Amino acid sequence: MLKDVPLEEWAKAWSTEDPExxxxxxxxxxxxxxxxxxxxxxxxxxxLRVRCxxxxxxxxxxxxxxxxxxxxxxxFFALFVFHQSRAADExxxxxxxxxxxxxxxxxxxxxxxxxxxxxxxxxxxxxxxEIRFEAGESLCALAHATLLxxxx
Length: 152
Prior knowledge:
The chain is an alpha+beta fold. The protein has three helices and six strands. The longest helix is centred in the middle third of the chain and has 15 residues, at 70-84. It is globular, with a radius of gyration of 15 Å. It starts with 6 loop residues before the first helix and ends with a strand.
């Protein structure tokens, strides 16, 4: 049964040894967003910055990121930002997004854009993560996600 598979087993399916990559192929959402092609620009405890491709499937007719897909990027990326705040030897737990908000300032246009995330606050099993969508010098969107570690 799927619910009995430990998170570490799932994570192996889409992990990568390449330090310039966040994730490999094999994660359904990651594959949809072409996350295996994202380039890690910065990786520090509780902080992560990546350059992303704006895939065709998430573009509106003007070629910009369709607003409804922005939270998909946020939800997926926030998990990795959160895990970046953990010690390497800490066992991973399943995470649930309990709150997500996105404020839009300018269109996210392709072919690439950057996401920068950091853990704003962490306590017990929950964390608040902020994610910025940037294109050049422009802040296109600012997102906030609250994550909760679920006991397996």
